[in-house]
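hey so i finally got around to running the thing on that chain from the lab meeting. sorry it took forever, my laptop kept dying and i had to restart like 3 times. anyway pasting the input first so we r on the same page abt which one it is
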Amino acid sequence: MAGFSQNADTTKPAARKKAFQEGYYYNWSGVKIPGLIRHKHAVYSVELGTNYIEFKAIADDKKKKLTVADVQSFVLDTDSFAVLRSFKSYYDVYYSKDFVKVVDTGNVNLFLHYNEKRITGSDGGPAPVGGIGSTTGSTATVSAAGIESLYYAQKNDSVYCVTKKEFKSLSVILFGDNADLMKKISKKKLSFDNLELITEEYNHWKALKIVQKP
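ok and heres what got predicted. didnt touch it at all, straight out
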């Protein structure tokens, strides 16, 4: 299907314009600032990533654009977003930092990173993330194809892009010391589709082990 990536774990069609939601953000001085927030997606930048927010203190205010240079975390409804540093996408594109949705935290931190996929050229093939907003010829066209989301798992000081293709090998690195979970993964009782549940159960197991230490 044109505009959808076989490598992506989830690609949703380009959505209608999002409404502002009540929320708050923390700046890099640690100050909490409440107001109305809209999560947006942007052209790729090594330093600023592909995500930013629009903020208004009150509904009648003029909106202002805030990036990872201004914001260390923000909350919309029940969703929390933080800044993840020094990671590479499935497409080997490097991000110095960008906003990610926090899925679970503990011994393994699990995040979702959002990126606006675009299609370019006469063949309708997906543009690489680094090529978003650029063209290679006078007849090339670029249009939004949807929002792609990819899982990232952080353990110790390493960050891994977890895809269906890499799930089995990465599960050894991320969850390998939990024999019960690894047995279920080996027998295909648990799979990539259960990544959030696996991470939650693993973090709970690790937390109990710490508490039970003599």
